[in-house]
Write a structure and sequence with these properties.
mainly alpha
């Protein structure tokens, strides 16, 4: 498992706990550290997990609006917690993180969904993120190259 994939896995675990337990954002650094200690005690992610989790929390409302818009047959609360948080990670990386190429974000999210989600999670995540990716491409073409919105 690559370092970034392991980091995304721990970020997913953290966001799942946040979602399941209705935790406040202020508790997340502690949860990240506990999950690092439990799942990868020797792993130095150089702050990637905290950056990813903080980004999801910061952009949470906008990310959830995109999920609602692009998965209209699935009310947000009916999407499994794993799939919902995989989508949040994927959208955060695609739309708000300039360092992660959109296709990498999609591929990583699909792998997380296949590993930790249900039988059709990979296809579901691929469909939602693929549609959002098309919107990102269209907005990039409208605003010029090398800009993330």
């Amino acid at each position: 498992m690559s370092n970034r994939h392991l980091a995304r896995t721990i970020a997913l675990q953290t966001l799942y706990q946040w979602d399941f337990n209705h935790l406040g954002a202020e508790t997340l650094p502690e949860v990240v550290q506990r999950n690092l200690k439990e799942f990868a005690p020797q792993f130095d992610d150089k702050g990637f997990i905290e950056h990813l989790v903080a980004g999801v929390i910061k952009n949470h409302n906008e990310i959830d609006k995109l999920i609602i818009k692009y998965a209209p047959e699935w009310p947000l609360e009916q999407i499994t917690m794993v799939d919902r948080n995989v989508l949040r990670i994927g959208i955060q990386e695609m739309k708000y993180d300039d360092e992660i190429p959109e296709k990498v974000a999609i591929n990583e999210a699909i792998e997380l969904a296949k590993t930790f989600g249900g039988e059709s999670s990979g296809k579901f995540v691929n469909g939602v993120l693929g549609t959002i990716y098309k919107e990102i491409l269209n907005s990039k073409q409208a605003s010029g190259p090398d800009k993330k919105n």
